[in-house]
Fold:
Amino acid sequence: MTARSVSAFASGRGLSIRLLTVLLVLAVVLLFCASLLVGPAALGLGESLSALFAGKGGPVVLVMQEIRLPRAILGLLIGAALGLSGAAMQGFLRNPLAEPGLIGVSGSAALGAVLALQTGLAAAFALALPLAALAGAGLSAALILILAGPGGGALALILAGVAISALAGAATSLVLNLSPNPFAAAEIVYWMMGSLADRSFTHVWLAAPLILAGMVALMTLGRGLDALSLGEDAAASMGLRPGRMRLVLILGTAAAVGASVAVAGAIGFVGLVVPHILRPLVGARPSRLLPLSALGGAAVLLAADVAVRLIAPDRDLKLGVLTALIGAPFFLHLIWTMRRAEA
Amino acid sequence: MRPAAPWRFARWGLGITAVALAVAVAQGAAADPLPTRPSGAQMPSRVVSINLCTDQLAMMLAAPGAGAKPGQLISVSTLASDPMSSSMAAEAAAYPANRGSAEQVFMMNPDLVLAGTFTSRATVDLLRRLGVRVVEIAPVTSLQGVSDQIRQVAAALGRFEAGEALVARFEADLAALAPPSDSQASRLRAALYYPNGYTIGKGTLSDDILARTGFINIATELGRAGGGNLAMELLVMAGPDLVVTSKPYPGASRSEALLRHPALAQLGAQDGQAALLATSDADWICGTPHVLRAVAEMRAAHQRAIAGPAAPMQSLP
Structure:
């Protein structure tokens, strides 16, 4: 179904929102299955599905349960986390350019993760990896909100984001270049572009609790963001406390994005593109946009992860390459339309 | 093509630089008669090696110093003293190390530079332009090739007798490590699996080590030649009896974390056959007599595996 026909269905009625939700859930389920079925080992459909539910067994069971299943689960969770945090940030800042990847939150999370790995902290205490990434993401998110809070304007946000991204990227490269491990420097691309190749259930258990906790926190912001969309005065008259919302946004984004980056690297543009595609379909109601953006983000990331395996099966093409190829032109288009609106 | 007049003036500066460079290159070439003349009985006295494998062969073959006079070999690469890559890290500590940059090597005033054919082209070209004799040694692709390699380096150093002595010792030691009987039952399947899922197939020294010690390399089975990445899925589906991998470097990397993937660990639990075998890469890398230690280790691993699948093997830390 094309976006146009979806939008015809979705023109402002409750039922069509439900239809959109059903369609998105369906897309996520299909792409999750595709993620399980696509891989270099050419397995038959029936063979792979039965192996997925088998107990102990041969190599097919290992491939399905230990290699493909964790990859698909992480694609689902991380995509949802990125889509949701993008929608929440855009809603709070009332700025269409807010996105964890663009404004340096993902990059700072990568720096935290790399520091935890290279100092040996993550080897001594496994949870140090996602927690350090969370700290990096939290610090940069707080800094961004202070520098370019509501009313700070798109320019302040993007400038602060560019500065923080550049700083985090440079520091990450420096740490990896100075590592005694000869492979570390070659992994700069991974930390900046992200990949789900050869992830295991170890990574799922490390990241999933924090991602889910962060997403729950972000979901609670829906009503508040609805009120905020009416203007700050109206929100204040409804008894809303923006300070508390800001804290929830920072912590929720830090947990969801930080844990995602810790196990998959920084994947950009998902949080930018998804809310923008969905916003015209659901109307300007952040409380509706949040869950749909989570679904949309999951669908986009699962699709990208299937695509990297189809385009270059042997080469571990990075996810950020695909999301940027689609996202960056979209971003330029967005700036163009904003410029025209301001003129 | 002749550019228009104003362009010619604009390009004067550039033109002069180009002429100066061309002259310098011509002089460099004139001052370097060695590449065109066979080395013959001439024995270089200041040799710098900038490749891990030539480092080790040169250390074994070069003439030692007498009294306070330094030996024939004046510097080896920094990699030679890294125990993760070099079989002769302790010996290498006695030599000044170089990082292989043309500038640093040239300042050592060498009359022979030993390089690998995979050494940076720019470095080799620049050294030659500066009038330094550079001998490039190709990587060894089989155990048989080690003897040729020793002779090549010995000839470059002008140390023919030392070369022949080392070849004789190597060939005797290799013959002593007889390959296992070639019965079907004794053939085991092994995978070479390194960081980033790197594997090594047909036409390589590692493949020959496996073949000689009674193993079938699964990468060769899959039609892989040379080095390349093998998806973990394909490794698991191939179901090798033995996985040969490398010791992790200090610090952390995602490339090496792959080797601790649960699927690899469970591969061993599947039928009680496959087991991980941590092995030192250093002896596998270069075609030097040290490669015999890798052959002996794999031969022992083969015998243990044949003796009983349940026999405990060294597992990856």
DSSP finds 16 helices and no strands in chain A.
